[in-house]
Amino acid sequence: MPAPKPQQPPRPRSSTPSQFASEAEDFVGQILEAVTGGQEVDLDPEALRGRMESAAEEFDRRTATAFCDALLDQLSDDPANVRLLEALVILGLAHPDVLASARISLAVEGRRLAVLLERGGEPERAQAVLEFLASRMPGEPTIDQELAGLMRRSGNTAALVERYLSRAEAAVERGRVGEAIPWLQEVLLIDRTRRDVARMIRDLRYGEVARERASQRRTRWALGLATLSTLATVGVAWNLDAHTRFTQLPAAEAHDEAALRCRLDALEGLAHARPVWIGSTRVAEERQRLRDQLAGLEQAVQVEAQLEEQRAAEQLAEAEAHRLRGLALVDSLRLSEALVAFEACLQVAPADWPQGEQVRTDAEALRRHLGGSR
Questions:
Q1: Is 332 helix (H, G, I), strand (E, B) or coil?
Q2: DSSP state letter for 249
Q3: Which of 25, 26, 27 is closest to 63 using CA atoms?
Q4: Mind giving me the DSSP string for 26-77?
């Protein structure tokens, strides 16, 4: 049967200081009765859970805030009052936001309550408080540490060992071997004769190493497959791009030197940008073929230049021979033959030949002379 709800706290303006103090004390007594269930209630974990659930259902946030303020006010005057602190902890468990709004740490107050209970000769009650706080606040390491210390001091190491073993077993069931091993090591710190626990630690470590190696192998395989897949994808894209570039190169006729050089330059650029692809051998062969063709064209040009130079030298020699023959015929007064020699000289002589102008003048003079003689 739920405890009766206490009335609202008295107003100081309508009472004398002594009356207000008495009324406030009565109000706090009602709070203790409502929250803790009275002095006779043994708050083991189940009783704590029941009182907390009752407090959560019976008191709304506004009422819980009023209770919290009254309890804190009384605790400021009597910080070692176990009943007040016990009521505050139960109220905080039922309405944690109320304590948070008052900037009160439930973990700190719970540990303080456990210390007071232990010092007051109630270690079992202190353990019950800490166990319930640990179940409600699993992420708070200080509660676990305080509970473990209390159980060691009270000689309740067997229960502590079972607690650690249960946590290790739960961690293993979740597949978190790394969390299980520290709990088993705590067991060995308490009882070094537990060879079974030492063997469990060795087995877990061996299994962890084996799993780690298997995981590494799977990771390497996965990375290898992913790398091969990536390389294959990149390789296909690379070859398609290179092939597209190759098909877009400018064409060239076999005897068009400018076109051949343009295609060779384009092939050189492709070989630099895509040095390795499926058609790289074909590109290398064509580059060599174009170099050979261009070298042949250059050689042909050189040969033609040499031939042209040779022909020019032969013409010059022939012209010089006709000029010398003409001069010799003039000296022999064989003027008609000399004119024929000079005309033959002018026909084969280069246009820029230095002797050409003199030969032309001599030939003209001979024509006038021979014409006048006739």
A1: coil
A2: S
A3: 27
A4: HHHHHHHHHHH--TT----HHHHHHHHHHHHHH--HHHHHHHHHHHHHHHHH
Q: Residue 369 corresponds to which amino acid?
A: H
Task: Output Rg (C-alpha) for the chain, integer angstroms.
Answer: 57
CA 353 – CA 99 distance, rounded (Å): 120
Handedness of CA 55, 61, 67, 72 (dihedral sign): positive
Rounded Cα distance between 41 and 351, Å, is 138
**HSE-up of residue 211 (Cα within 13 Å, Cβ side):** 10
Comparing 33 with 88, the larger pLDDT belongs to 88
Q: Judge whether 51 and 41 are in contact, CB under 8 Å.
A: yes
- CB atoms < 10 A from the CB of 94, how many? 20
Tell me the pTM: 0.45
Please say if the pLDDT value at position 320 is more than 70: yes
Distance of CA 184 to the CA centre of its chain: 36
pLDDT of residue 31 exceeding 70, the answer is: no
What pLDDT is stored for residue 14 in this prediction? 45
CA distance 345 to 356: 8
